[in-house]
Amino acid sequence: MATQTQTLDQGILLGPELPFWRRIPRSMWKFTRRYPLGAVGAVFVVLLVAMAAVPALFTPMEAQDALQQNLGDRLLGPSWTHWFGTDELGRDLYARIIYGARTSIIIGFGVVVVTQVLAILFGTISGYYGGWFDSFFQRIIDIGIAVPGLVFIILVVQTLSPRMPQVLFLKPDMMALILSLSLLIAASSSRTIRGVALSLSTEQYVEGARSLGAHDIRIMWRHIVPNLFSIVIVSASILVGSAVLIESALSFLGYGVQPPTPSWGRMLNDARTQLTRAPHMAIFPGLVIFVTVYSFNMLGDALRDKLDPRLRGAN
To answer: What is the set of domains in the chain, with CATH numbers?
Structure first.
């Protein structure tokens, strides 16, 4: 039967294979039992993505406008009306945190996508060809890593923001921030990809493809890049948290997302002058940033243990 499988080494005929939609809950349960912290991180990541996609579902009707100012309600503490209190302009802090999740998710995932594409491109080409080309290319990467990160990001953002167009929901300052962070992180991320590609380029199936006359591009695309997916997935899950943290730090310094767009780092910047009068303005955005970065890191660690064959038996 097409739905039955047979193990050739033992000669045992197994029962019908479960459909895909029934294997998903079982796999999720096994993942939760083995990696509970990773499962908690995954739940919060899904919740964060949902908040970024449909923020109106997570905010009361009276607090759905995160930009609405009401000076009569400025610097109010947490209450049933304003769950996280209000800021110096009377804006609901809970609504601003919910709508600020969209900014963090767009920048975080945008940085990861661009970074991984560049890292795979640079690392695969450098590791595959090796020799003098690899040495020359790695010296260029060394120069990129040696550039002071904060200075580079500020320079790129301030230079490109006035010149970048708006594409859909990506504002010019967000696009400049994604590009600067991606270029900075891709230099170091390509090192990991390069090491694995260097090892894969000596495998027998790669040598066999060369002997059959396969083109270098085809070999890299069909035989090397697919074997990098586990590393890319783990790296991406951790990089999202790092990108969110860097964006928050830059917004705190005034070089990130510009107002009136809600941003967690910008909220911390606004709270500096009100720490004694309204500490809730710094506490709640800081907690959200902490939990977000922690969740992505825990999910990344769990995926690393799950996908890396060297670590599968460690727990």
So the answer is: 59-307 (1.10.3720.10)
